[in-house]
Amino acid sequence: MPRPNYKWWVLYIVMIGTLMGALDSSIVNVSIPRIMADFGSSIDDIEWVVTGYMLSFSVLIPLTAWFRDRIGHKALYIASLLVFTLGSILCGFAWNLPSLIVARVIQAFGGGAITPTGMAMIAEVFPRHERGKAMGYWGMGVIIGPAIGPTLGGYLTHTFGWRSIFLVNLPIGIIGMLLAARVLMPDKPHASTRKPFDLAGFVFLSTFLVSFLLGLSKGEHEGWTSTYLITCMIIALVGLVGFFVVETQVEDPIVDLSLFESSVFSICTMVSVVRSVALFGGVFLLPLFLQQQMGFDEIRSGLILLPGALVVAFFMPIAGKISDRTGPRLLTIAGLVAVAYFMYMYRNMDINMSVWDVIKPTLVRGFGMGLLMAPVMATALNAVPTRKAGAASSLLNLLQQVGGSLGIAILATVLSHRAHFHLNVLGSSLERSSPAFRDSFKRVFQYALNLGSAHGDARKIAGALVAKAMAQSAVVSAFQDAFIVGAGIVAIALLPSLLLPNKATGHTELDLSKME
Question: Does the pLDDT value for residue 231 go beyond 80?
């Protein structure tokens, strides 16, 4: 018999692994310049430190449900922590860039299983009417990790060197494994579902994921009409078609597509994917603006983003508890409206805005994400039988990963294209006949003369500075446009969210036909 507080011990142990995995998703980016300098690597080569992790992470997620059926959650969770920790140690002692990339792949094979396994464990030990509350507490690790990652990574890199950002996982991983081995009750594999491995389905799905995510991550660099990208997308399409063909033929597919027979699970998936598109895209845009346009370093940027993340962590457990009583519909709608408004608030952002003007919208986002995340995740797991919680959490995490990568690609493309558009519009002001150009040129020219520059040099300085200012103005306008597009993407998720349950689901399976 499990002890009375066993479910909470499971939650605490899962939060340790989740925090470690989530922290590593953001802590590395800060140290990329130092790693480049240490290994003498180019930007194209160093990108594989991040890209290799992302691809391996995504490929591993679909396997977690199959592994759980074979070895049980306890063994799978401990093994995931072990592989992740060993990968972190190898990263910390990498002797060149290829060894670091291989170590990151090993690290990702552990990290890819931690979150879906943890979600499934929570779903199994908590009754349906408490899952919202449990997901709210668990989600604190998901949010706090990426929030403190840049700040912690910048501090560790500056103080102890870049290898410390990986070695910091060692004590966390050891504590997590010891607690899991000591506290978690042995769980038997699902004997009734010990299915054979769907190799063909896994190969086709991996082909799709690798090609699609690789194309998205390299698309802006290589060009969206380049041979490279077209090849990636063709291979991805072949993989996706092959995957669906195989999954409809085999008896035990690698991904349980029957989960989508639940209307509520399908709606939760749609909301989660659209949310990920906007969320990951927004998380990509804001630090970029703070560092490239406002001149803040990584540590200060991380500190500016921290209050919003703390707001998320504060509201997630509250929203989870409310969702258990009232259902997810109103909370999800309110959360989506707040997240959309957060992005819309940056429609007039500029390089001279105060720090408070930067932080204020992130607090709105924190409130919205706090209302949104736990109810949707809990409702998705409640919509399927408990025995399928592992498959459901794996599929949900996989689609969120794809959605996040798609969001970054979409908003990065909007940013690039709108920057060129605004630069062309502002470029007309560089014509000698333009009053705007003459006024700006005259002021800068006079300023240069006052500093002692010769007449010819002053003219060159004035022309260069005015052109630079206009180029920066074009980029700032492009950031404004990208955030507006992000707000529109979030608004799309409002439509399916209207179909979510508007009452607590209790212990019963969800079905839209019962909500009329």
Answer: yes
